């Protein structure tokens, strides 16, 4: 693929947009970011707080530890951390700089009972709003569709910024009458702001043939910063997960039970990173498709295989470009959040990266992906919590098995369940399953988790 090809430039942009650092599970961190931004707009500490969120946000925040809070969990903890100690300009690292004194202040703020949480009436899967009051003053910030995409900023009922597409959710008719449907007068994205309104690269340009071509031909210097950061940060938290005592310690259980061969080390590396992250480890990771678990799953097994095989750095970079874009391609059809476990997309994509490291061509990569998806596409997402690490291990195992099947001349065929002939059709089927077919499953999961 030539550098002047529009796909080449789009794929570079996609990697830079998706592979960003984040500290803590992205849903509570997004909520902390939303709260920190609202606190910035209010200009002082609030007397009362209302947090509204879609079911998937509630699901993914409910059971995970919010970092830098002395082990606190849940919606109220995430919002309190953002309000008390958040630095809004740091986006998904919004609470990375919390001091010991601020941790105590977060606890006191929570105990004061100032925060009310309620479900949000929204059609968006990823949607949240934080409203703060102090005396007669009010500030409201809403994030929708992606974890740092601010669609509304209000102060005392006046829109300081409103993304045009947010009109369908908030005051659509009023805005259409007042400004011809162009959004509030004078409302502009904050220049250079992280998470402000932005036009993203077109994910519809992704397909497996072009992804493989890009991975083969990309100038390593064009991806060195983003991929190098992923290797460094994700390896560090994986090592911490294996050393420390986090969650159910799935990474250590795998090594102690099944040994130290490369297949098991690959699974354990990814699981250990999740062990640490889901249990409040205060180390950043590079995410994929809005998820730290997916960012670790798509990278750490490939890194382990590259070490085992003695691959040069450039080969590893190309394999990680392939695995990351393959995961993003799958998730583009599913959406950021759903009842479909994102670790499945990432683990199957890691299998493709592993296949590439071992000399696999486009045919091998495509068969690896289809085989792996046939095995684990039924895993549900029931929120962020320690058991994510075990789901990650299962998904990576499916990716490894998918390539082993191909090498043995074995495969699943079109018509076998949700598998269709051709990798793109199968990816489309999985997207349909995750986005549309599992909507009712998602609602039932949320009802079970919230006791409704």
Automatic annotation (TrEMBL):
Q: Which residues form the Serine dehydratase-like alpha subunit domain?
A: 146-446
Q: Return the InterPro entries for the record.
A: Ser_deHydtase-like_asu (IPR005130), UPF0597 (IPR021144)
Source organism of the structure: Eisenbergiella massiliensis
What is the name attached to this protein's record? UPF0597 protein DXC51_26460
Family affiliation: Belongs to the UPF0597 family.
Which PANTHER family does the protein's record reference?
A: UPF0597 PROTEIN YHAM
Gene Ontology BP terms: L-cysteine catabolic process to pyruvate
Return the Pfam families for the record: SDH_alpha (PF03313)
Report the GO molecular function annotations.
Answer: L-cysteine desulfhydrase activity
Question: Which parts of this chain are annotated as the region Disordered?
Answer: 177-198
